[in-house]
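Here is a complete protein record:
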Amino acid sequence: MQDFRAELGSRALFPKLEAEVYAAHAAISPHSLAVRQAIIEVTDSYAERGVSAVAPWFQAREGLRVKLSQLLGADPKELAFIRNTSEGVATASSSTRANFLPT
């Protein structure tokens, strides 16, 4: 896998991006070269090995969880991966009782 390094102000990881300015808004964002390469790698592994390709990706995800927890000074069990912003907001809001709700 190619090593992709981001540099502040560089658009090198986004060669397909046509817009002069991209104001990210947590909805649909352009994929960087690294993301595009990862998508190809995952889908190729599924095409080659079918369902047996899933377990190694779950293991990789758990390795990422450990690395992120170390970066954040958290326990790996405290980190959750979510599909999108809406799911995260819904999960967070449903897991706590809002102060403005009657008891």
